[in-house]
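Continuing the batch. This is chain 6 of the set; chains 1 through 5 are on the previous pages. Same settings as before, nothing changed between runs. Recording input and output for traceability.
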Amino acid sequence: MSAKSVEDRLEVLAVAAKYFASVDARDWTTHRSFYMDKVVTQFDVQADTADLDTIQGKEVDADQAVEATKHTIGNISVTQHTMTNAYVEGEGDELTLRFYEEALHHHPSLGSAPEVNTWTMYGRVVQVYRRTPNGWKLREARITPVHDVGNRDLLTAAAAGK
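Output for chain 6:
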């Protein structure tokens, strides 16, 4: 593996970490900066929201994808997204990042009990990044949940303003 390839892989890992940090910080401007103008997303999570339904599995404007994310989790008091077992595949101007995700969502307005106000999803994630003149940008993202604990309806309730 060339030094350039190693450097590219580290840059993609850094972009992915900043991508999740921007969501957790509710910094939507920075979050948008990590996307290409068109993006394909498939977030197979427990959320019955019209916003997520409009972006699932098809190419959409990145602004629309960010707005759907913002509407779905923007009202949640605390989120924390962590990545583990990350590795990058590919060469050249398109790289694929695979990792496990733990996504904690805590929304105390739903009640005081953790089984009501907290939902944690564990999943497998695949993200495809492309090199652009402005750095590596997210082109495709898929989250496949493998387990969860807590209130599976938390995202839907938060998106509804509860």
